[in-house]
Design goal:
heterodimer; A: alpha/beta; TIM Barrel; nine-stranded mixed sheet; disordered N terminus; B: alpha/beta; Anaerobic Ribonucleotide-triphosphate Reductase Large Chain; 10% strand
Chain lengths: 250, 764
C-alpha cells in the first residue's frame, strides 16, 4: 500500500456531480466535476470550477454513493463514471482514491484532463482508468501559453507517456479565432497521430456558460458566437483523411 | 340533500366535437321520442326500457359514411340519449343539461317550450343527477368536476373493453344462438330478451349503412364505388355470419363498439391479427390496403373525439396469436407515426423479450412527435395486476389500460374511476383545523383535529392527517360502490353486458351480478405536493426546528406573502423526483397508506378490487386553481404535480434520477400510474441508443410505464404566443395527448413547468 488514505478520510473538493452525462465518454455516465484548474482558457464552460479553494468538501464514499445510484444505467448503456473538472489531477490523491473506489464497484472510469499536471499524477491514475479524454487545444506552445496560461510542453510530455497505455482519446475543443484553421487542426491531428492516438472528439465551441460568468461577477472572455456541429464538419473530414476516428461532440 | 348545479361540465372535453348531421327540429324530435318511450316504459324492467330506448336512437343517429371511410359507422349524440360514459353523450338514460340549454338557445323562440318540457322531465330521470342527489355531501363530496371539493364522485361506466374474440368467433348469429339457448332455460329472463333486441338493432344498423354505401357508390368515382361496394358486401356478411376477412372482422368490431358506446378497444393486434394475416397470405389484401384500413380506423376513432380514451393496445404477453398480431402491430406503428392524431391512445405493452424492431419502431414514432405509443412494462404490470386485482397471472396477462391509464381485464372486469380525491387539499384543510383556507368552509367531516401547537412529533402530526384521509377513503369506497347500485337500478348497459363475462351465462347485466370481476378505481391528485409538503414540515419543524407548525401555517395561509424566506426554505427542502431517499420515502409512505387503504376498503365493501390510479387528465391543474398554498412551497392556485411525476421543475438531477424516483412505488397497489417524460428532438433522436438504455434500465428497475413527449425547447413557449403557427403540435398532457394550442393557458403553463431533457443538459 502506498500513502493513499482510506476512501472515507479522503476529502475531495467537488464542484458538482452531474448524472446522465452523455458527452463525457461512452454510454450514460455520471460526471464528477472536481474543483480547481491551472489553466485559464477564456472560453471555459465551467468557470466555477477554476478556483482550487472553492467547491464543497465531500468524502470519497459520499461521492460514490451518488455515482452508484445509476449503476444499472451504466450497465445497460456501456457507461460509467467520468472525473472531470476543473482539472481533476489538481487533486491527485483524491482522484486516485475515487478511481480505485469506482473500480472496486465495477464501474467503467474516464478521466477528462487538460494534461497540465505533474507526469506522475497521470501515471498513478492510469491503472484505474479505462479511458482518458485528453485535451489537445493547440499545437503551438506560444499561442497556447498566451491564451490559456499553460505549458504545451508539459502537456505533450504527459500525453506521450500516457498514450502508450492505448487509453487516450484526444478531445479538441474547436474554438473560433483560436484553433479553427486548417493548419492548426492539421497540426493537432499530426501530434495525436504521432503519439499513437486513434480517436479524436471535436467539441464545438458554445456560449452556454455566459450566465455563469455573470453570476460569478466575471466577464465572458471570448467574443465569438457559438458554432454548430456542421461548422466543425470540415475539420472532422481532415481528421478522417489523416486516419483518425472522429466524433463530433463528446 | 347536497346542493349541486346540474349544468356543471361533467368531464374534460378538449377535442371539439363534430356537429350533428341532423337538423335542429329533427334533433328535437328524436329527443322527444326518446323521452316519450322512456316515460312509457317507466313501469317496465330496466332491460326492456333500455332496449326500447335504444331502438329510438339506432339506426336513427347513424351519420353518413364519409369519403375517407373504409369501415362504416359514425354516430351523433344529442343532449338526451343513452350511453356509458360522459365523453360521448352521457351515462345511462342521460340528459346533459348544459348542452340541452345551449341547444335551446339555437332554436326559434316558438320551439323552446318543448325543450323546457324535456328539461323538466329529465331533472327527475337523468341517471347522474339521481346518483348525485343520493350521494353528494355539502363541503365533502362534490360532483364531477367541481374543484371546490376535496373529493368528487360520479356515476359512469368508463373503460369497458369488451370480449371481442367471442364476438368475432361467433358473429351476430352465433351470439344470438348462445343467448337463445340460455333463454330456453330461463324464458322469463328479460336481460336475455332485451339482449336479443340489441342484436336486431345491430342488424338494422348494418342494413342502414349498407344502403348508404350502395347509394353513395352510384355517384362515386370508380375507385370509391369499388370501395363502397366492398363495404356493402362486408356489412351484408356480418349481419349474421362470423367474419371471415380482416375488413369483416374490423367492421363487426367497430359497429358493435359504436352501439355499445364503448370508447376503448383493447388488444386489437391479437383480435384482428389472424384475419389480417390470412388476408395478406391469401392475397385478399395488399399490405398497402391493410395500412389504409388501419388508417381509416384511426380516423374514425379520432373523429369520436373522446379526449382521453380511444385505447388500442398492441404487444405484450398473453396474446393468443403473437405472430399474426405482430403484423397488425407493425402496420399500426406506422399509422400512429404518420397520423399523429391525439386519439387513438395507441399503447404498446412490452417485456424483456420484446424485439429490437418493436423498440425501434416505437422510438421512431415517439421521435416523430406522435406522443405514441405509450409504453407499459408487462414484467412489472402483470404480477402487480394479479396481486392488486386478486386474480391469477394468466388472467392478469389480459390487463388493458383505458382512459388516462386505468386497468381492466379485457372482457372480464369493470374499472371505472368514479371517484377523484385531492390529497393536497385535504392536507391544507387538516392544517387549517378542518377548514378549507380557500373558501372558509368546514370540510373535516366531523373528524376531530387537534390544534397545531399540540403535535410533539412529526409522526403525531402525520397521523392526524391520516385520520382525516381515512374519513375520505371510507367515503370513496362507499360512493364508488353506490354508483354501481344506482346505475344498476336504472340500466343494464345491454350491448356491453352481452360481451362481458359472465353476463349471458348468469343471465344478468354487468352491474347486476353479471360481470366476473366488479372492480373500480379512485383517481388520486396532489400526491407529490402532499408528500413534499410533509417532507418540508418534517425537515423545517421537527428536524431542524427552524419554524413551528403554527409559523409555517401562518406563512402558507398568507400565500407566503411577507414570508419570502419561509417559502425559500420550503422550496429548498428535499423534493421527490431527485432520487433522494428522504423525499422519495415520504412520497412512497403516503402512496402506500392511501393505495392500501383504498384497496382494503374496496375488498371490504364487496368489490373484486378498488384501486387507486395515479392517473391524471388535466385535473391536477384545475384542482390546483382551487387549492390553497402548501408547505412544499407551492403557491395558492398553482397547478399541482402531474400524476406520479414531480412538481414541474422540482426535479433537478436529470432523467435517471427522476426515473429512479418514479420506479420506487410498488405497482401492486395501483391500477395504473401515469409517468411522463419530455425530451428535445436533439436528445431523443440524436442519442437513440442512450434513450433506449435509459428506458430499458428504468423498466428493469421496476418502472411500470412511460409516456413520452418529444418537443423542441422554446416551441411550447412560442406556441403560447403564436398559436396560429402550431395547429398540429401534439403534446402529452398526462394520461392523454392534446393539440397544445387547444389547452387553456393554465394547463399550458403546467406543461411548460415540466423539465425538458436536452442533450445540452450535459454540456455543462
Amino acid at each position: 500500500m502506498n500513502n493513499i488514505p482510506s476512501p472515507d478520510s479522503t476529502s475531495v473538493r467537488v464542484s458538482s456531480i452531474q448524472r446522465f452525462s452523455i458527452h463525457d465518454g461512452p454510454g450514460i455516465r455520471t460526471t464528477v466535476f472536481l474543483q480547481g484548474c491551472p489553466l485559464r482558457c477564456p472560453w471555459c464552460a465551467n468557470p466555477e470550477t477554476q478556483d482550487p479553494l472553492s467547491g464543497k468538501m465531500m468524502s470519497v464514499s459520499q461521492i460514490l454513493s451518488v455515482v452508484e445510484r445509476d449503476a444499472d444505467y451504466y450497465r445497460h448503456s456501456g457507461g460509467g463514471v467520468t472525473f472531470s473538472g476543473g482539472e481533476p489531477l489538481m487533486q491527485p490523491d483524491a482522484l486516485e482514491a475515487l478511481l480505485k473506489a469506482s473500480k472496486a464497484s465495477g464501474f467503467h472510469t474516464a478521466v477528462e484532463t487538460s494534461g497540465e499536471t505533474a507526469g506522475e499524477n497521470l501515471l498513478r491514475a492510469e491503472p484505474f482508468t479505462d479511458i482518458f479524454l485528453f485535451d489537445i487545444k493547440h499545437c503551438d506552445a506560444k499561442i497556447f501559453r498566451k491564451v490559456c496560461s499553460g505549458s504545451l510542453d508539459t502537456i505533450l510530455r504527459n500525453l506521450e507517456a500516457l498514450s502508450k497505455s492505448g487509453k487516450v482519446i484526444a478531445r479538441i475543443p474547436c474554438i473560433p479565432a483560436f484553433n479553427m484553421d486548417a493548419d492548426t487542426v492539421r497540426g493537432i491531428f499530426a501530434l495525436a497521430l504521432s503519439l499513437g492516438i486513434k480517436e479524436a472528439h471535436l467539441l464545438p465551441y458554445h456560449t452556454l456558460a455566459k450566465d455563469k460568468y455573470a453570476r460569478l461577477g466575471r466577464t465572458w472572455g471570448w467574443e465569438q458566437s457559438g458554432i454548430s456541429k456542421e461548422d466543425v464538419e470540415p475539420f472532422a473530414c481532415l481528421g478522417r483523411e489523416a486516419g483518425l476516428r472522429i466524433r463530433i461532440g463528446g | 340533500m347536497a346542493r349541486f348545479n346540474i349544468e356543471t361540465a361533467q368531464n374534460v372535453e378538449i377535442s371539439k366535437k363534430i356537429p350533428c348531421e341532423k337538423s335542429l327540429p329533427e334533433q328535437l324530435e328524436i329527443m322527444e321520442r326518446y323521452t316519450r318511450v322512456h316515460r312509457e316504459h317507466l313501469g317496465s324492467s330496466k332491460e326492456i326500457r333500455e332496449a326500447a330506448c335504444l331502438e329510438v336512437l339506432y339506426p336513427t343517429l347513424l351519420r353518413h359514411i364519409q369519403d375517407q371511410d373504409l369501415t362504416a359507422g359514425r354516430l351523433d349524440f344529442l343532449p338526451i340519449g343513452f350511453g356509458c360514459v360522459t365523453s360521448l353523450g352521457g351515462v345511462g338514460h342521460y340528459c346533459v343539461f348544459r348542452k340541452l340549454k345551449a341547444f335551446r338557445e339555437t332554436l326559434p323562440e316558438a320551439m323552446r317550450p318543448r325543450v323546457d318540457a324535456l328539461y323538466d322531465y329529465w331533472k327527475d330521470h337523468d341517471l347522474k343527477t339521481l346518483y348525485n342527489q343520493e350521494t353528494l355531501q355539502d363541503g365533502i363530496l362534490g360532483m364531477f368536476i367541481d374543484t371546490e371539493y376535496p373529493m368528487i364522485a360520479t356515476a359512469r361506466l368508463s373503460g369497458m373493453m369488451l370480449d371481442y374474440p367471442t364476438l368475432l368467433s361467433l358473429g351476430i348469429g352465433g351470439l344470438r344462438k348462445r343467448i337463445g339457448e340460455r333463454l330456453s332455460e330461463d324464458p322469463e329472463n328479460e336481460f336475455l330478451t332485451a339482449g336479443l333486441s340489441c342484436l336486431d338493432i345491430f342488424v338494422k344498423c348494418a342494413e342502414t349503412l349498407l344502403q348508404d354505401a350502395l347509394a353513395q357508390a352510384r355517384g362515386a368515382s370508380p375507385e370509391r364505388a369499388d370501395e363502397l361496394k366492398r363495404m356493402a358486401a362486408v356489412l351484408e356478411n356480418i349481419k349474421e355470419k362470423a367474419p371471415e376477412t380482416f375488413p369483416e372482422a374490423l367492421q363487426l368490431l367497430w359497429l358493435y363498439a359504436l352501439l355499445a358506446g364503448v370508447i376503448n378497444y383493447g388488444r386489437l393486434d391479437d383480435f384482428l391479427g389472424p384475419y389480417l394475416a390470412a388476408d395478406l397470405r391469401e392475397g385478399r389484401l395488399t399490405e398497402d390496403e391493410a395500412y389504409r384500413y388501419i388508417r381509416s380506423l384511426w380516423t374514425l376513432i379520432e373523429n369520436r373525439r373522446t379526449t382521453v380514451n380511444g385505447r388500442i393496445i398492441v404487444g405484450g404477453r398473453g396474446r393468443k396469436h403473437p405472430e399474426d398480431a405482430d403484423i397488425f402491430l407493425h402496420l399500426a406503428m406506422k399509422v400512429a407515426k404518420d397520423c399523429r392524431y391525439v386519439e387513438p391512445q395507441f399503447t404498446l405493452r412490452l417485456d424483456k423479450d420484446t424485439s429490437e424492431q418493436v423498440w425501434d419502431e416505437a422510438l421512431e414514432a415517439l421521435g416523430a412527435g406522435a406522443t405514441y405509443p405509450t409504453i407499459y412494462n408487462d414484467d412489472v404490470e402483470i404480477p402487480a395486476v394479479a396481486y392488486g386485482m386478486r386474480i391469477d397471472e394468466k388472467t392478469a396477462e389480459q390487463y388493458v389500460p383505458f382512459g388516462c391509464t386505468e386497468f381492466v381485464i379485457q372482457g372480464q372486469s369493470t374499472g371505472t374511476p368514479n371517484i377523484c380525491i385531492n390529497l393536497l387539499k385535504i392536507l391544507t384543510i387538516y392544517m387549517n383545523g378542518g377548514i378549507d383556507p380557500e373558501d372558509g368552509i368546514r370540510k373535516d367531516g366531523g373528524v376531530p383535529i387537534r390544534p397545531l401547537g399540540e403535535y410533539r412529533t412529526f409522526e403525531e402530526f402525520y397521523d392526524g392527517y391520516k385520520r382525516l384521509l381515512d374519513f375520505y377513503l371510507d367515503l370513496s369506497a362507499e360512493a364508488q360502490y353506490h354508483s354501481y347500485e344506482v346505475m344498476n337500478r336504472h340500466v343494464a348497459f345491454l350491448f356491453t353486458s352481452l360481451l362481458m363475462d359472465d353476463c349471458i351465462a348468469r343471465g344478468k347485466a354487468v352491474l347486476d351480478g353479471g360481470v366476473r370481476y366488479l372492480g373500480g378505481t379512485n383517481e388520486t391528485y396532489g400526491n407529490i405536493n402532499a408528500s413534499d409538503s410533509l417532507q418540508a414540515i418534517k425537515t423545517l419543524v421537527f428536524d431542524q426546528k427552524k419554524y413551528t407548525l403554527k409559523q409555517l401555517e401562518e406563512a402558507v395561509l398568507a400565500n407566503f406573502e411577507g414570508y419570502g424566506q419561509v417559502r425559500e426554505d420550503c422550496l429548498a427542502c428535499d423534493k421527490y423526483g431527485n432520487d433522494l431517499d428522504t423525499a422519495d420515502s415520504m412520497a412512497n409512505d403516503l402512496y402506500e397508506f392511501v393505495a392500501k387503504g383504498v384497496r382494503e376498503r374496496g375488498i371490504a365493501i364487496g368489490m373484486q378490487y378498488f384501486l387507486i390510479v395515479i392517473s391524471n387528465n388535466q385535473l391536477n391543474t384545475e384542482w390546483g386553481l382551487k387549492t390553497a398554498a402548501s408547505p412544499d412551497g407551492r403557491l395558492r392556485g398553482m397547478y399541482m404535480n402531474p400524476a406520479n411525476n414531480p412538481q414541474g421543475g422540482a426535479d433537478k438531477n436529470g432523467p435517471t434520477a427522476m426515473l429512479n424516483s418514479l420506479a420506487k412505488f410498488d405497482a401492486r397497489y395501483h391500477a395504473g400510474s401515469v409517468q411522463n417524460i419530455k425530451f428535445t428532438p436533439a436528445m431523443f433522436n440524436g442519442h437513440r441508443d442512450v434513450i433506449k438504455s435509459l428506458f430499458r434500465t428504468y423498466f428493469d428497475r421496476g418502472g411500470c410505464h412511460i409516456m413520452v413527449t418529444v418537443v423542441d425547447s422554446g416551441v411550447l413557449e412560442d406556441a403560447m404566443a403564436h398559436p396560429e403557427k402550431y395547429p398540429n403540435l401534439i403534446v402529452r398532457v398526462a394520461g392523454f395527448s392534446a393539440v397544445f394550442v387547444d389547452l387553456s393557458p393554465d394547463i399550458q403553463k403546467e406543461l411548460l413547468s415540466r423539465v425538458l431533457y436536452d442533450e445540452q443538459h450535459s454540456l455543462a
